[in-house]
Structure formats: structure tokens, C-alpha cells
């Protein structure tokens, strides 16, 4: 197996240094330029008298030193754009209809951290500054952990620690970096989704389901991660039904997959029910909002359409051409990624992994090792747990909890004998997920959001790593990718931190 070295320490180092550089850039631009909108510091009291009674106090005993007041002011002034909503929700709860567009994982974590670890700072810099500080600490720590999990996941998928390292470095310098170090959900979502996929690829399905469910508690698109469980269930049930011809096992596999998928979707559904209860229950018919009377009262969809104008082709306007240009690099990268992997294994993608690709269609000379997998019958996800051993030889051959070092430092005997490379069937759900996300970003959402919306998709970094390592491609493509990342980091830290429109 190529690239046996463990580069975990390097990934963590790059992740930490990239955050320090980005924070330094933010401080630099804030000191050199005046913000476009100075309303970020306005903080009206909470509607609830209980929560809002001390929301504006900076000190409980005397006036804090001038330096602490300046620090508090700097933190509060840095809470811009959607960060205002997350901090407000953490402080006051869900007060207005439009706040329900922001899922609760990040605000809940901010509130808990501000009430525990950073609670002693409230008398000195005030509650809102402590909430902002908690958000920054949480997201930057989550980013470092997300980079760690991306590296581990990439080693499992790519079977090459050097390619995995390069992909992780690309993630550390991704064009949406400003959002990963701000009070946005990108870091928490990336940690939960990539961490969940890592455990799924290792066969730890219970842990994976929990992590993926948390991703759905961080962002609405987290519910799409249930697709990975559905894809896994589809293949495992096929083997149980048609290979082993065991009806009982097939039913158990289908039931298990359905329960895991529902568990991942449940947080989002529960939050919609919570919004319905708060906004619709108890009011008269005349007082109820229009969405409350719908057959399927989805608060999230109504808010996105009503307040942000999100909808199919709604953004296709001449005045939005600059935003399409701004999003064109990440959308082009996503398209190239999809085309690359589909052309690499067309038969696998057409058959959704039920048919192995012909060896003659492998990409000979690719920097990504293909190994035996392209024409192998031994394709599929890791088995669910040790109890799966009775489901048949094909499942019994897989170790459910393969040690991490087997993928990184010391490959197992089975892997060595198979000349391990990428297993095409495992890549299929990643690409299908990217296809759906890219199409949604282009046709439905505000297209400029694509840069951060797609930034947690591992295949983008795998393909970028391949481009930079491939001897078949010109080095200028690698330089273009690095230049793109660097330019968006500089542009994002300059514009976003000073309340100018970005992605």
C-alpha cells in the first residue's frame, strides 16, 4: 500500500497554523479598514425578561479595565452577518420566525460553553462578548478535528497517506476558510459529517449514525447524509437476499438501515416540530402564519423562500451574474470531480455499485492507486458489527472494526494480498452526494453560497490532490488550485470581516 506513513501530526499542525493565519488576517483587515455596516454592535435586550435582564451588562461589580472593554468591543463588533443570529439564539433562544432557519447545534454548544468554561469572564467583558468568544473557540477547535477526520477518512478511501495529506492540506486552506473560523455552522457540520463518514467506513455504524445525526442538527443538508446509510443498506440487503438467499437476514438488514436513516433525519424533523409548536399551536386561525395551515407545515422551507428568496431558478436573474461568477470556481471544481470519477468507473456508477468496472477502463497511469478493486467482486461497505458474521462469507471476510493503523502504518495481510486501492463502490455515494449538493447550490440556493456549501465535501479535496500529484497533468492546474484557495482566503477575510458582501 502506497504511503504507509502516518501524517496525523502534520495535518493537525497545518490546521492550527491555518486558523492562526486566518485570525491574524481578520485582525489586520479590521484594523486597517472601517466596516461597511457598523450595526453589528447593536444588541437589543432579549424579548424574554428572564434571559434579557442581564444581556447588556458588562460588569457585575464595578467598571472593567479599559483594555477589557476594548476586547469586549472587538469581539462584539466581529459578530457579523449570520453570526448575529447564532449568538442571539444562544443568548435569547428562538424569538422570531426567521431565526428558525438556523439549526440549534451551534447555538446550544455556544450557550453551554459560555455558561461553563467561560462563565467567569462574563463580569469582565459581558455576556455577548463571552458568547462570541465561545463561538470562535468552538468552531476553530471543530475545524482542527474535522481536518483530522478528513485525513483518516481519506487514508481509508485513497489507501495512500501522501494523497490523504495533500487533500487535508487543501481542506485547511479551502476557499471558504473564513466561515470555518467565524461563528457559522461550517466547522460543526464538517466535523460531524466527515467524522460520521470516517466511522462508517471503519464499520462502526452506531457511532457513525450518531455523528451523522448531529450533522443534521447543525445544518439542514445534514439529512442528506442518511443517503450513505441507505446506500450501504441497499448493498448489504442485496447480498443477504441474492447471494446468501436468507430472507430473515435481509429483513433485519433493511430494518436496521431504515432505523439508522430515520435517526439521522430525526433531529431536523424534531426541530421543525418544535417550531410548529412555538409558532402555530395555541393561536387562532386568523393569527396563524400561512405555513401553519399547509398540509405539510415545513417552517424551514417557508422561511428560506419568504425571507431569503430561495427557490428553484429564483436566482437566475441578470443582476445575479456577478454572484454566479463568484461561485464558478467551486462549481467548476465540483463538475470536474464528478466527471473524473464517473469516467474512471462508468459501469460502477451506472449500476450504483452492483456491477464492477472492466479492468480495461481503468485510468492507467493515474496517481490514485486502483489496485484490484476495479475488477474485483469484493466490493462494498464494511460489515455492520461482529454479529454480521453469520450473514455469509462475503460479510464474514470483512473485519467490522479494523484498527486504524491497518490503514495508515501497517496494512493487514488481507489488504496486502489484495494490493489494496480505491474500491469504486465506496466512492459512489460520495459522488452522488456531491452531485445533489452542487445541483441544489446552482439551481435552488443563492449561488454564491456554493463556496461554503460544498466545502465539506471530501471528493473535492481528493480530486484536487490527484490533480496536483498526477504526472499526466500540467503543474499549472495545481498552481491554479492553490491560487484560487489563497485568493478566496484573502478576499474572504477582507470582505467578510468588514461586513462587505462575500459568499
From TrEMBL:
GO CC term (a single one): mannosyltransferase complex
Molecular function terms, GO-annotated: alpha-1,6-mannosyltransferase activity; GPI mannosyltransferase activity
Enzyme Commission designation: 2.4.1.-
Membrane-crossing residue ranges in chain numbering: 12-29, 105-125, 137-158, 207-229, 249-271, 324-342, 426-445, 477-500
Pathway it works in: Glycolipid biosynthesis; glycosylphosphatidylinositol-anchor biosynthesis
Keyword Transmembrane annotated: yes
Functional note: Mannosyltransferase involved in glycosylphosphatidylinositol-anchor biosynthesis.
Protein name, as recorded: GPI mannosyltransferase 2
Origin organism lineage: Eukaryota, Viridiplantae, Streptophyta, Embryophyta, Tracheophyta
Amino acid at each position: 500500500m502506497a504511503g504507509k506513513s502516518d501524517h496525523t501530526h502534520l495535518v493537525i499542525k497545518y490546521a492550527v497554523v491555518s486558523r492562526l493565519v486566518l485570525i491574524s488576517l481578520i485582525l489586520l483587515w479590521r484594523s486597517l479598514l472601517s466596516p461597511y455596516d457598523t450595526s453589528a454592535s447593536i444588541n437589543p435586550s432579549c424579548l424574554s425578561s428572564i434571559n434579557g435582564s442581564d444581556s447588556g451588562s458588562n460588569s457585575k461589580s464595578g467598571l472593567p479595565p479599559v483594555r477589557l472593554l476594548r476586547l469586549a468591543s472587538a469581539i462584539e463588533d466581529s459578530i457579523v452577518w449570520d453570526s448575529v443570529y447564532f449568538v442571539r439564539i444562544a443568548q435569547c433562544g428562538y424569538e422570531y420566525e426567521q431565526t428558525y432557519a438556523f439549526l440549534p447545534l451551534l447555538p446550544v454548544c455556544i450557550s453551554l460553553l459560555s455558561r461553563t468554561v467561560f462563565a467567569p469572564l462574563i463580569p469582565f467583558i459581558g455576556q455577548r462578548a463571552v458568547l462570541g468568544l465561545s463561538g470562535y473557540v468552538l468552531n476553530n477547535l471543530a475545524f482542527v478535528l474535522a481536518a483530522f477526520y478528513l485525513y483518516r477518512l481519506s487514508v481509508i478511501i485513497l489507501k495512500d497517506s501522501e494523497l490523504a495529506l495533500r487533500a487535508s492540506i487543501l481542506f485547511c486552506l479551502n476557499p471558504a476558510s473564513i466561515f470555518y473560523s467565524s461563528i457559522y455552522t461550517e466547522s460543526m457540520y464538517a466535523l460531524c459529517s466527515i467524522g460520521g463518514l470516517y466511522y462508517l467506513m471503519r464499520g462502526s455504524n452506531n457511532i457513525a449514525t450518531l455523528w451523522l445525526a448531529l450533522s443534521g442538527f447543525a445544518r439542514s443538508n445534514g439529512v442528506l447524509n442518511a443517503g450513505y446509510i441507505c446506500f450501504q443498506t441497499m448493498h448489504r440487503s442485496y447480498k443477504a437476499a441474492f447471494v446468501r438467499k436468507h430472507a430473515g437476514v435481509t429483513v433485519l438488514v433493511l430494518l436496521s438501515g431504515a432505523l439508522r436513516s430515520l435517526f439521522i433525519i430525526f433531529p431536523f424533523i424534531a426541530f421543525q416540530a418544535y417550531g410548529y409548536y412555538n409558532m402555530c399551536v395555541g393561536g387562532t386561525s386568523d393569527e396563524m402564519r400561512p405555513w401553519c395551515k399547509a398540509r405539510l407545515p415545513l417552517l424551514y422551507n417557508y422561511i428560506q423562500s419568504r425571507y431569503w428568496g430561495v427557490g428553484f431558478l429564483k436566482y437566475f436573474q441578470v443582476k445575479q451574474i456577478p454572484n454566479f461568477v463568484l461561485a464558478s470556481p467551486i462549481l467548476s471544481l465540483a463538475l470536474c470531480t464528478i466527471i473524473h470519477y464517473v469516467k474512471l468507473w462508468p459501469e460502477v456508477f451506472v449500476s450504483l455499485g452492483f456491477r464492477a468496472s472492466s479492468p480495461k477502463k481503468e485510468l492507467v497511469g493515474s496517481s490514485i492507486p486502483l489496485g484490484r478493486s476495479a475488477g474485483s467482486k469484493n466490493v462494498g461497505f464494511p460489515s455492520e458489527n461482529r454479529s454480521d458474521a453469520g450473514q455469509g462469507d462475503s460479510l464474514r471476510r470483512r473485519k467490522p472494526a479494523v484498527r486504524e493503523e491497518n490503514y495508515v502504518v501497517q496494512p493487514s495481510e488481507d489488504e496486502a494480498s489484495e494490493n489494496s486501492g480505491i474500491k469504486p463502490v465506496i466512492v459512489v455515494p460520495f459522488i452522488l452526494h456531491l452531485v445533489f449538493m452542487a445541483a441544489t447550490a446552482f439551481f435552488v440556493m443563492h449561488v454564491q453560497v456554493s463556496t461554503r456549501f460544498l466545502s465539506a465535501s471530501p471528493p473535492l479535496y481528493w480530486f484536487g490532490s490527484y490533480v496536483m500529484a498526477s504526472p499526466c497533468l500540467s503543474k499549472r492546474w495545481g498552481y491554479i488550485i492553490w491560487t484560487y484557495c489563497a485568493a478566496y482566503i484573502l478576499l474572504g477575510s477582507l470582505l467578510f470581516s468588514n461586513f462587505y458582501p462575500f459568499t
